[in-house]
Amino acid sequence: MAENKKPKDSKTDKPEKKGPPPMPMRGLAISFLMVAVFLTVLHLFSGSSQPTNEIDYSDFVNMVKNDRISKVVISHDGAGNEFITGESKDLNAAGTTQFRAEIILTENLITLMEDHAVHIKKKRPKTMMWSVIANIVPFILIFGVIYFIFIRQMKNAGRGAMSFGKSRAKLLTQDKNKITFNEVAGVDEAKEELNEVVEFLKDPKRFQNLGGKMPKGVLLSGAPGTGKTLLAKAVAGEADVPFFTISGSDFVEMFVGIGASRVRDMFEQGKKNAPCIIFIDEIDAVGRSRFSGIGGGHDEREQTLNALLVEMDGFDTQEGIIIVAATNRPDVLDPALLRPGRFDRQVEVDLPTLEGREQILKIHSRNVRLSDKVELKRSARGTPGFSGADLANLVNEAALLASRRGADFVEQEDMEEARDKVMWGRERRSHVLDAEEKKLTAYHEAGHAVAMYHTPECEPIHKVTIIPRGRALGATMSLPEKDRYTQSQKRLEADLVSLMGGRAAEELIFGDVTTGAHNDIERATMVARAMVCEYGMSKLLGPQNLGSHSQPVFLGQGISGSKTFSEQTSQQIDQEVQRILTEAFDTSMKILTDNKNLLITLSELLIEREVLDFEEVDSIMKTGKLPEKPETEAVAEPAPETTVPEAVEEEAEGEETNPT
């Protein structure tokens, strides 16, 4: 524990040293700005406070003789000139009027004002220096504030108000969040490909002796969450060269030409630090195909892409800069970007295998207090199709579940519940089913379990539950024995039989069907149509591909697509899909009819216990009762009478699904 605290303390000390320096500079700039505004306003108001009623010297003398002046102030403007400001009596109305007059101060003028009882006040003359300071200092302060706010910021950060075309690539330091290949698992082939790039940068002569050249670029493609960005971080941690990172969206701006300018500036930084690695995350934001199928004219994204193409392999291309990019949409990238010489290597980052998932779980559970009874291999078996991000979320959810119940260690039950929560959603204990709906759901799920158990090609049953979870009222879960990359026709037909088990059980027991099998029928129809149209598993139509609608349509690629087969073939497709689904339903109905007593027994136990695992289901299928556990109390009560209930009308929620 002491070793884990030291790096945390060192990390917390660094911000304390680096944090305070920017604050005094910012506070000083704000103080200068406030003082400048105050002095400017004071200067303007002091100038505007002077009287605007200008009179001539002769008028002033006449007003003194006529006793219209009550008091005067003799001032100097700093240049040797004298002037008088004061108040004159308004003869037409009660009150006074301020005036200003330039004078030549003489003894006669002072004697005249004294004779007419004028109150005289003199001000000291202003020096030239004070006048200059009073007029220039506000402008000096304003320019000083502009310097601190804009010019200093542009020099320090390089991203000031006038640096739109500067690259936003960040240079990662060697000791900042360092990640190595030891912390990456489940993608061994991708690690080998990138490790060669790292070795080339460390010792290029070993490869150049045989005439090899440094690769220009490596494109990492794969499903979201498979670890593409993590691999790039590992390359940054392994390589002893500068590593720049930037997102594809940082190139695109609303100003024309900014993206291309940033690309050029990014490569200029790379040339100064060569050899180096530049990582572009989500490159599909800037590297999309230039043919969009509609419109025309100039596009900012195309200009940015052209600049990227030229910098990667053009007339002025220099060695020593390796581009590593990541995307989960390689199908939309421009072909010119994918050719050899730009992205020499295209590394596919697949979903992890069974062994890879176990290794990933070990990595993410390093800082989690796992119980000695936890079997990570079992958890890996139960998570086919999970990515690295999904597995990290699974371990985190298990830790949260264990802490919520106040446990000291994470148990296997927490891992199983976390897996079920990630795949199907959290248990909805508050969604209470009445007796009829609970009975209907129990028979529905028991139908799936019986059909799956008596179909050898199906995966082994893991758990059967009638507790609402997510949008499903119940679930029959399977646990694959191994990863499968191909599916045989018999296995697909077995899956259809298991999917039809719920609907067949409803019709067999209640004589009626509900909307609870909505999701089962939807999935079965998709599988059957894929068997006919994509996999060529129809004897009537033969081995031919009749089109797939599961792929996303990219703009300009497939908008005007039409069917490539006749209406007669379309009718044959519908007939074949209907035949496959009908045969699967009939097979499932036959299995349930032959094992009706097991179906009823399993359903009654589901109503009583709500959850049954594989050992319990297997014992029920073989002996007709639950297994005897010595550590728990034996079941002394006889099993309830297994009579076939009368048909009841059920109205299940149309949106509720029952996944198998």
What does this molecule look like?
- The protein is α/β, with parallel strands linked by helices and 660 residues long.
- The protein has 4 domains: 53-126, Signal recognition particle alu RNA binding heterodimer, srp9/1; 170-291 and 299-349, 3-Layer(aba) Sandwich (Rossmann fold), CATH 3.40.50; 365-424, Helicase, Ruva Protein, domain 3; 427-547 and 584-660, Methane Monooxygenase Hydroxylase, Chain G, domain 1, CATH 1.20.58.
- The protein is 47% helix and 11% strand.
- It contains 22 helices and 13 strands.
- A 6-stranded mixed beta sheet has the order 5-7-8-9-6-10. A 4-stranded mixed beta sheet has the order 3-2-1-4, covered by helices on one side.
- Helix 9 (258-272) links the parallel strand 7 and strand 8.
- The chain starts with a helix and ends in a 37-residue tail after the last helix.
- Mean pLDDT is 76; it is low at 1-23, 47-51, 157-162, 293-297 and 632-660.
Sequence of strands across the biggest β-sheet:
5-7-8-9-6-10
Oligomer state equals: single chain
Q: How many domains make up the 3D coordinates? A: 4
Q: Would you report the number of β strands?
A: 13
Mean pLDDT: 76
Number of helices: 22
